[in-house]
Specification:
By secondary structure, this protein is α/β, with parallel strands linked by helices. The chain contains 8 helices and 12 strands. Its main location: cytoplasm.
Length: 233
């Protein structure tokens, strides 16, 4: 089986070469882009499995690139940036990024983030062995084989992280899942307990599946603990 294709968007030559060498050690296929314009063209034409994206590009901000890609694709985007403030990370995640790695980074951590993202891709392709292919709860329906979600018959556009959050809650319907458990399952051990990022994604997910976010029907908050999907009778 061919290795996944990774698009590396980075204008710093030294960092770009480091990432390229790292990917080559694992025999990953990759394409390079030095500007935002090149990144969008490569994303459209090559349809990579993962995008590694620097935010500080010479022609446009990386957050704008995330928004452009999200307007037509759910391809996973891992941000690699020198911006280390929480507000920068949350802004990128809120725009549709799937993960955020701060420079300087270790090659081991980069490869770990890539592996986690690839596992999420596999997870999204269908249900685990023995699971029902369709999950129905009230007006909510998840079609695991196609990766599609419907509410009252209308297909919803979810980001990869929103989809995995929803699937995790659905596969544990009726159970309270802690913040640490959810973040570890969705992002991996390095993000375990990152409640701020989790809240961002949970808020965007709720906007899409709840008719009244002030009085949620599907996802209940357990303050200071976590979240639970309610079973609709």
């Amino acid at each position: 089986m061919n290795k996944p294709l990774i698009l590396v968007v980075e204008d710093d030559t030294a960092v770009r070469n480091l990432i390229a060498t790292t990917l080559e050690t694992q025999s990953y296929q990759y394409h390079m882009a030095k500007t935002g314009g090149e990144a969008v063209v490569e994303a459209v034409s090559q349809k990579p499995d993962i995008v590694l994206l620097d935010l500080g590009l010479p022609d446009m901000d990386g957050v704008e690139i995330i928004k452009k890609i999200r307007s037509w694709s759910n391809m996973p985007i891992i941000v690699i940036s020198a911006r280390s403030e929480d507000r920068d990370k949350i802004e990128a995640l809120d725009a549709g990024a799937d993960d955020y790695l701060t420079k300087p980074f270790s090659v081991d951590e980069l490869l770990a983030r890539v592996r986690v993202t690839l596992r999420r891709l596999h997870y999204m392709q269908g249900p685990a062995e023995g699971e029902e292919p369709i999950f129905v709860n009230g007006d909510l329906r998840i079609d695991y084989p196609s990766g599609c979600v419907y509410l009252a018959g209308r297909e919803l556009h979810l980001t990869p992280i929103e989809y995995k959050l929803l699937c995790l809650l659905a596969k544990n319907v009726g159970k309270v899942l802690t913040h640490t458990f959810i973040t570890k399952e969705v992002w991996g051990s390095s993000w375990a307990g990152d409640v701020a990022s989790l809240r961002v994604f949970m808020a965007t997910l709720r906007k899409k599946i709840e008719t009244d976010t002030a009085h949620p029907k599907y996802i209940q908050t357990h303050v200071g603990v976590g979240y639970r999907m309610l079973r609709i009778e």
